[in-house]
Amino acid sequence: MNSEKKERQELIVWVYTLKHFNKLKRYGMIHYASKRMNYVVMYVDQSKKEEITRKLSKLHFVRKVEDSPRQEVDMNFEDVLGRVTESSSLDDFQDNESLKEDSFFSNDDILGTL
Question: pTM score, two decimals?
Fold first, then answer.
C-alpha cells in the first residue's frame, strides 16, 4: 500500500442536472453533491488538475468548472476568538461614546419633560 500523501485540489463542478452523477466519479473523489443548486465538490490529484478540468468542461452536462478557493483560506484559527472579542468590545465602546455625543435630546430635556 502506498503511504505517500498525494496533493489534492478541490474542484467545484456546476452541472445542469445530477442525472450523470456516476460519470463524474471517474474523474476524482466526490466529496459533496447539491441536488438543489446542481453542483458537485470533488477532489482530484494536483498534478492532473488542468487535464481533468479540461475534460470535465467538455462534458455536455457540465455548466462550469472552477477551482475551490478553500486552499487559499488560512485555516489557522489560533487566537481568532480573542482577536474578535477584543475588536468587538472596542467597537462597542466607541459606538456608545459616539451615541452619547450625537444624541438628539440632552439629559436635561428628557428630565425636564417628566
Answer: 0.63
